[in-house]
Amino acid sequence: MHTVERKTRETNIQVSIDLSGGPVDIATGIGFFDHMLTSLAFHAGWGLQLTCDGDLHIDAHHTVEDTGIVLGQVLAKALGDKSGITRFGSAHIPMDEALAFAAVDVSGRPFFCYDAPGMQGALGAYDAGLTEEFFRALTTHAGITLHLRLLSGKDAHHGTEALYKAAAYALKQALAPADGVRSTKGVL
User: Does residue 27 form part of some domain?
Assistant: First the structure.
């Protein structure tokens, strides 16, 4: 189990992760976001304990982005030198009319590419447009490359959920056990 805490004037976040599994308990104060983080952890096969006390009286932006920062930091901490993982993963996930694609490289080189046209609007207190902010923060602080694309879909709930699940399955594949460091350089 690896833990990271971060406290700012906008958020107070504690995250513990176990990449080999375990209980999932999420509390950010944003119901739909809790649902997405629970889904991400469940489908990636992680144990995840995450609490965030954020300035929700303003809006959800700081809570969502800062959660991505801290989740990325704890993921980087848990991965260490990245030896013993497959490194690459990808997944297509359908959710009714929505179809999402994710590809990941756990390389130590942060890069994020996002293409999800039409994924805007309120999902409870969560703005679907914050999905891009969350994953940008996560990839930057985890040191991973992530491509997320919504290939089809009109319903913001279905499209957003498909994006989170596609990322989860791509990460699960990338973090699967493998021998040594998966790089011809010998180091990531």
Answer: yes
Q: Between β-strands 126-127 and 98-105, what pairing exists: parallel, antiparallel or unpaired?
A: unpaired
Domain count, the chain: 1
| pLDDT surpassing 70 at residue 79 | yes
pTM: 0.95
pLDDT at 181 over 90: no
Answer whether residue 188 shows pLDDT above 90. no
CATH code (residue 51): 3.30.230.40
* Per-residue pLDDT tens over the stretch 40-60: 999 999 999 999 999 999 999
Residue 183 lies in a domain: no
Residue 81 lies in a domain: yes
Could you tell me where the beta strands, DSSP code E, fall in the chain? 2-7, 11-18, 24-27, 47-54, 88-95, 98-105, 111-115, 122-123, 126-127, 145-152
Q: For residue 121, what are the CA distances in angstroms to 130, 155, 156? A: 10, 10, 7
